[in-house]
What we know:
Elements: H1 2-16, H2 21-32, E1 41-43, H3 44-59, H4 65-75, E2 82-84, H5 85-106, H6 113-117, H7 120-123, H8 125-131, H9 134-254
Antiparallel strand pairs: 1-2
Helix pairs in contact: 1-5, 1-9, 2-5, 3-4, 5-9
Amino acid sequence: xxxxxxxxxxxxxxxxxxxxxxxxxxxxxxxxxxxxxxxxxxxxxxxxxxxxxxxxxxxxxxxxxxxxxxxxxxxxxxxxxxxxxxxxxxxxxxxxxxxxxxxxxxxxxxxxxxxxxxxxxxxxxxxxxxxxxxxxxxxxxxxxxxxxxxxxxxxxxxxxxxxxxxxxxxxxxxxxxxxxxxxxxxxxxxxxxxxxxxxxxxxxxxxxxxxxxxxxxxxxxxxxxxxxxxxxxxxxxxxxxxxxxxxxxxxxxxx
Length: 255
């Protein structure tokens, strides 16, 4: 749509024309003055209170609650009560860029940083509001619409980033599971290799046992043969002893 196209143009312009060095230091210093939590986010209300005190001290004008509420919606579109540094810097850059365009178009004098952040028509009080032209009012409304479109796109971008981070986390989890499975598979492979070695050793021992059994059987047969030879020799010895006795008896008779 035309509104979205204008929002993209405003965001692109803000990105291409960043804060000046002085403005960047100031914005970061404002953020650092608020206590950040463990996620590096600060309270939106604390940030607005501190920013309002600085702006009112700079301009001498009370900042209307409506403008603070509008800034709060831009800083915290999901109403979480917290805002991070990147979001705060983005909103500041868009508002400063928008005001620079207004100043350039009207050939006005340079204004302070806080007058860029808080619209000059509101900072000027009720008397100034009565004197502004309908053209300036229309331009402010148009710019606020652009801001909403830009921040809406930024919110969508943040959601996409969250989804990307979730996908990255899922990818990391899958990679971890794959590495774990690979490690387990390697361990199983090592165990299988060890089992194969033990199986080979068992086969070798079985074969050796069969060889020893055959050797035992052979020795048993040899032992039986030796027993048979021994028995034969014993029988022959008995026979010789018997013949010897007969010869001895004959000799005695002869004598």
